[in-house]
Structures are given as structure tokens and as C-alpha cells.
Design a protein that fits this description.
It contains 3 helices and 3 strands, in the order αβααββ. By secondary structure, it is α+β, with helices and mostly antiparallel strands.
């Protein structure tokens, strides 16, 4: 989880809007699924926020309310 959160933060530092498709670009199918599950855990812990436009396939990712690293383990 820490590695994924760090990757998300690096995209945010570049001022980019992060999409799930960009996050999983180049990953094997099993790793894409694993990333999605970890992303759901991060959202549940309020480390990231996920949103999707109605009728669209893309998922957008932003940093959440609780961006401290302390409770990731």
C-alpha cells in the first residue's frame, strides 16, 4: 500500500490528474487487479478519493483527507 500511495503522490506532484488507466499502464492483468484492490483499501482508509463521471469508464484518483503514512500497515 505504501508503494502505491507513493506512486500516486508522485503523479500529484507533477500536477497531473491521475486516472486508473494511467496508474495501471504497462502492468500485467493480475497486477492491475491487485492495484485496484489496494486502491479500494486506500480509499476506505481515506488516503485517496476515487470518483467517476456518470456513464464513463474512467476512474479518477486524488489524495484523500488522511494523507499521513502512519496507519498504512
Amino acid at each position: 500500500m505504501k508503494r502505491l500511495l507513493k506512486k500516486i503522490r508522485s503523479f500529484m506532484k507533477e500536477g497531473k490528474i491521475l486516472t486508473f488507466s494511467k496508474l495501471i499502464e504497462g502492468l500485467e492483468k493480475l497486477e492491475q487487479i491487485r492495484t485496484f484492490i489496494i486502491l479500494l483499501f486506500l480509499a476506505h482508509r481515506k488516503k485517496v478519493s476515487l470518483w467517476q463521471k456518470e456513464g464513463a469508464d474512467e476512474i479518477f484518483i486524488t489524495l484523500g483527507e488522511d494523507i499521513s503514512d502512519g496507519s498504512l500497515s
